[in-house]
Design brief:
This protein is mainly α. The chain has helices at 14-34, 41-48, 52-58, 62-85, 92-109, 111-114, 120-126, 133-159, 168-180, 182-185, 195-211.
Length: 215
């Protein structure tokens, strides 16, 4: 599923598709460092080490870049939790623990994409002056699907008595809010940022999430 930069790169050959992905990588880095409003196409070109013309060849506006980042981040997020949520050989407690662990690892391993993907206000700025209805609808659809995976697992746990009763939607939103908030405090490349530390952090968050709903 190639949803990022939909409508611009979907029919490209593998070499040009990879080039478009490099541009998105550079844009994600620039947006993470400066925020959407303060970032220009020139800034993205500087990160990539190319001219603006190369960027415009694939993405017409800065908004196209920003939405492309969102679509790619959501695609990765669905790939991180979907397979576990759909497994039939795991109980809800194990599913939830693994989903949160994969979710947290995804946020850390794709930190440059996940920071910009949390910017709600700037999503509106990215769509100003252009008709982005289709892509915005796709983003909302993917977000609903991601949350639906969690809702289904928590609901299963409540119905089987593994998880305590309560408003499933509220429980899931609280859980996702905790994990997604990582973008404000996780700093990739820091002195304590190692593969082992990332795994430990993900395990801590997974245990916290599960214990919050256990019966």
């Amino acid at each position: 599923m190639r949803t990022f930069a939909q409508g611009r790169t979907g029919n490209l050959d593998s070499k040009r598709h990879a080039s478009a992905r490099e541009i998105l990588d550079a844009a994600a880095t620039a947006f993470s460092e400066r925020g959407y409003s303060a970032t220009s196409i020139d800034d993205v070109a500087d990160v990539l080490g190319c001219t603006k013309g190369r960027i415009y060849h694939y993405f017409r506006t800065k908004g196209d870049l920003f939405i492309g980042i969102h679509l790619q981040a959501l695609e990765w997020a669905l790939e991180a939790v979907g397979p576990t949520a759909e497994r039939e050989d795991l109980g809800p407690e194990q599913k939830l623990r693994e989903m949160v662990h994969h979710h947290a690892m995804h946020l850390m391993n794709r930190a440059n994409y996940m920071g910009p993907a949390q910017y709600q206000i700037e999503m509106n700025l990215a769509s100003e002056g252009r008709n982005k209805d289709e892509q915005m609808a796709q983003i909302l659809k993917m977000r609903r699907q991601f949350e639906a995976y969690y809702v289904a697992v928590v609901k299963e746990g409540v119905e089987t008595g593994v998880f305590r009763g309560g408003d499933v939607n509220v429980l899931v939103k609280a859980m996702l809010g905790t994990v997604n908030w990582m973008h404000t405090w996780f700093r990739p490349g820091g002195p304590k940022d190692t593969a082992a530390e990332r795994s430990r952090t993900a395990a801590e968050l997974a245990e916290y999430a599960v214990r919050g709903v256990l019966a």
